Amino acid sequence: MKGSPAAPADKSVFHSAPHGAAVKRKGGMFPLWRYKFLYLLLLPGLLHVVIFHYIPMYGIVIAFQNFSPYAGVSSIFQDPQWVGLDHFRAFFQSYYFGRIIGNTLLISSYKILFGFPAPVILALLLNEIRHARFKKVVQTITYLPHFLSWVILSGLILTLLSPTTGMVSKIIMNLGGPQTNLLASPDFFRPLLVGSEVWAGVGWGSIIYLAALAGIDPAQYESAKMDGAGRFQQMLYISLPGMANILSIIFIFAVAGILNAGFEQVLLLYSPNVYSVGDIIDTYVYREGLINNKYSYAQAVGLFKNVVGLVFLLVTNYIVKRLGKEGIW
């Protein structure tokens, strides 16, 4: 039976078993063990999330209790004083409810309106720079504020805008204007928040867009040049569509965080003179919880904020996906 066609078939079957076994082995714990050192690098971040984000979630229940810190943390589970939705009703009926919700939404909307396109525009402009050294200098200058905490940035802003010694106030007075305390001006406070937020985040926010632009095939630009497209047309029809997916994801997170108007920034810059235009949900929770010791009430307000943020996230993600863009899941 020499030369029979059955022999090659048997040989292929013989070699298929180890191949199948190898595929099966890859579906088990083999990849986890193979990349064990990469998972070890992931471990600190994972522990941080679990310890500081998941474990404290048991404290949500105090929003439905009359919790007193003097009774100890154990009182959350041992003989708790349940009050149901009383704290939520008190918040909805509060004089401050309309003011802090309105301020939060307005400040966050302004920040999205001006802060969302600013890094995109900067990334597009940086992408057009051909002088490498000048490009690095611009990137360094725009990235620097991100690495400074709001404590430092607010100190710089307070120094510049001081009504007596501030450089801005002196310039206004030298030009014949009156001595004014801009930090205590309700008309100036919101533009100050939005402007300083854009200044601090525009450089860092442009990095992800520059990475998206780097992934666009250069052949598309060459083809556009051959067809007579200018720089602006290339940005409009090649660069922006190339960033569409990352733009949609960043926009989803921006809208989902619309109730996060910048706690540290507002807390360090505002004063009672501008409470009417600058008091937001987070600063209200801070005052009620840590200053007035209304822990359960503050937890109820914080829980309301987080639930509304989750709803914004789900709705925005649904709308973006319905429009044919990339969602977060």
UniProtKB/TrEMBL annotation:
One of its GO terms (cellular component) is plasma membrane. The chain crosses the membrane at residues 37-64, 105-126, 147-172, 192-216, 236-259, 297-320. The keyword ATP-binding does not apply. Keywords: Membrane, Transmembrane, Transmembrane helix, Transport. It is a multi-pass membrane protein. One of its GO terms (biological process) is transmembrane transport. It holds the Pfam family BPD_transp_1. It is found in: Cell membrane; Membrane. Residues 101-316 form the ABC transmembrane type-1 domain. PROSITE patterns: ABC_TM1. It comes from the Bacteria. Its main location: membrane. Belongs to the binding-protein-dependent transport system permease family. This is ABC transporter permease subunit.
